[in-house]
Amino acid sequence: MSYLRLEKALMTNLQESLPRELLRTNRSGAYSCSTIVDCNTRKYHGLLVVPIPELDDENHVLLSSLDVTVVQHGAEFNLGLHKYQGNNFSPKGHKYIRQFDCDKVPTTIYRVGGVILKKEVVFQHYEDRILIRYTLDDAHSATKLRFRPFLAFRSVRQFTHENNTASREYHPVDNGIKTCMYAGYPDLYMQFSKKNEFIFQPDWYRGVEYPKEQERGYASNEDLYVPGYFEMDIKKGESIVFSASTSEIKSSTLKRLTEKEIEERAPRDNFFHCLVNAAHQFHNREKNDDRYLLAGYPWFKCRARDTFISLPGLTLAIEEQDYFELVMKTAEKGLREFMEGKPLSVKIYEMEQPDVPLWAVWAIQQYCKECGRKKGYEMYGKLVDDIVDYILEDGHPNLWLEENGLLRTEGRDKAVTWMNSTANGRPVVPRSGFIVEFNALWYNALKFNASLALENGKNERAEKLEQVAEKCKEAFVDTFLNEYGYLYDYVDGNMIDWSVRPNMIFAVALDFSPLNAQQKKGVLDVCTRELLTPKGLRSLSPKSGGYNPMYVGPQTQRDYAYHQGTAWPWLGGFYMEACLKLYKRTRLSFIERQMVGYEEEMDYHCLGTISELFDGNPPFHGRGAMSFAMNVAEILRTLNLLESYSYQK
Description:
This protein is of the alpha+beta class. 49% of the residues are buried.
């Protein structure tokens, strides 16, 4: 039986099927996304969603959906599904679904009387082209298929409504048409592998509703334009391929191309393979061959901090060091441009955040562990030296090295850490001064750089760095460790944050820690008692003031909950690394049980991947972005750590 197979009872129950989403990407920024029953529930959903750099920096929904109607003996059976205002669903095509399978590519089996129709969907790699193959597995009489495209031609952050500006023009192309609703947009080519008839019947479908937007307190209605429909006969055993793209293709090649793309897909036949597939979805190759990792889908761009935290898990943990090197090549260019005060030539956001260089060193440290320190030093030794020197010389505009060896930053007025939610233009969690994970990362970076220097004959440098590290270590314990055995989250002059937060876990998990074994155990114990959930670590203890574990409601309400008790799987990755470092093989079974909490997510929320965050209270419901790079990365890195500790004697 397929690992990701959903049966008829679930598919036809909209309460169960509508919360389950499906994501396909082309590894170049474009994606296709909807629910498993093809009913769009977010404004970000669409069959073909592509970046259009000529317009702006957003993705744009060109083709919202494609309704397929089976016609027999003049009777029509529409397999589409849309939600309209007033909780009305039409045309209720989900009731014909018999089975859904997502092993290699998403495959839906429909049954209408004696007709059995199979639909397979694949997004062509590195091209803005979605391919859908329809196969008539069974039919007892002459059968026609009718295809009705719903067009949006809008940014993912906006809605389209009926208007007189939209162009109704279309032009015939090879076995299809091309059309463009608005100036500035590319043409949308809709083509089939078989000769067909296009009937021009322009109309607006009004009042399409997106319940996910409603839940989040946003506008939620739009109108979609349908230019007409395509119609063709189909025989038993025959396959027809539909292509939607921003470029024309020779229709005679569609069947072969679809087969090739399906063959190239690795099966999602277990937990690990699902995560590997999810990891590849974050890949983004630009036209100039720069490589990036998107922070998540559907609305995140490439962000600097996310890139360096995600990079080891999404590449090294699955033995793809080549992609690590490609992404790091692009990221290093951006880092150096920032450190030299030059404008960025790469599309990486938030490079100015003060902990970004520290996470870059951590990512290189993981590369050295997986690929060997000799190669790591050859590839990135100079970069590590330059980053550490940049910080030592107070080169960063918002990171200062104090006399005691600790790093101080200003975060009262602008969020500067990963806890970056804001409300009314101010940080919800104004972390400032000496921040616990910044300084844990700094101590780790100093010690790592010193060890590399020593190995490569730079004794004077190593000695200098060790002296700074020793000062940092002493000040770290004096500044952050409190009488209750855990670490303050930040210390800003007389302001000491006593909140129990997960950021202290890095001081236990990193290879070089300023804490001794007893202190590490104390911190880990507090994290276990107050922060651990089956979906990672809570961002705030239930015992701390302001605990708000449910990420629901309008934007402001969610902003206040974002880092005030919600659970984050990527933090769980560092927690589990800390467990293994302290307790070795005795914690293997415990961590394997923790992995079960993530495996449960594979056939829920967005199939085969991990949501951005989870409610901090049971039942720990997935929220936010449907697929989040740091979470997938840290679970993959944990599985890799599990394997390495399992083989240790």
